[in-house]
Fold this protein.
Amino acid sequence: MKRLSRPSRMPIDPYVLLLLATVCLAALLPARDTAADVASGASTAAIAFLFFLYGARLSTREALDGVRHWRLHVTVLACTFVLFPVLGLAARGLVPVLLTHPLYQGLLFLTLVPSTIQSSIAFTSIARGNVPAAICAGSFSSLIGIVLTPLLAAAVLGNSGGGFSADSIVKIVLQLLVPFVAGQLLRPWLGGFITRHKKVLGLVDRGSILLVVYTAFSEGMVRGIWHQVSAVRLAALLAVEAVLLAVMLLVTWYGARALGFGRGDRIAIQFAGSKKSLASGLPMASVLFGAHASLAVLPLMLFHQMQLMVCAVIAKRRAHDPEAQEARQADEAREAAAGPPAATAQSRSAVGTGGAGR
């Protein structure tokens, strides 16, 4: 048996470092007065553009193809939008012993955010799980979360979450739902352009989120919100989030096994059902919390980095378990069986073209 090795270094998302640098910039040079108005307007436009891109990127055909595996998707959605919020509500008992009320509000908001897509797919692939299921599960979670997360926030946070009124609902519709629907409607014409410029639009996407973070944390600095947080409270928040992540990882893995899912599906459920999306959560928090968004997104930022580090270790260990070795050998056997015909066809093609392909 090959001994499992520990990764040489823990993965640190470079984008998280950019987010932290943005927070530091907001702390040193917060936007004030006219600059704050300009940043707020730009942030509003950036949020609308983000959700327009989300709608334009999501392939409706791929999402419909994934409906066939409805049991897996229902399981992931139940973990994301039922079990996570229940644990968040249970953490209310930690106030004020471990958490302040604003930090708890941010922790509770964290439990309402949709699952990730990119990292869920990446970790599922590394662990040799069901990648198509992870793609569909993450897409469904993001799509449903655009509607469900604000509704859940209004239900469980109430007025303490920044004031959910008719005006808040209008903002949610105009800044989140309308751009998303517009992106979906225009996808037939924009799909090719988005595919060709995927990397550039990805940079615009992330840059928009950085602008949202800068605006939120600048407003928090001007209002003196950050003086409410101490190092002890931050340490307590990290400990609570570590427990939350551990519980979700255990429940998604052993719960999926109890429900009769195979290994590949269990991996997809564990990685898609235990993680939260920073990209979706940050813009939503800016809309939902307003001036209090800086503290609201802090638990999500910390949880995001924690989940990346822990899930990277788990994915590498899953890739070396006996079942993964058997799956790898089966794949290699199929490739070997398909190899000779392909090689023969390639050699015939080379002869027919006079070796022009060399």
Remarks:
- The chain has 14 helices and no strands.
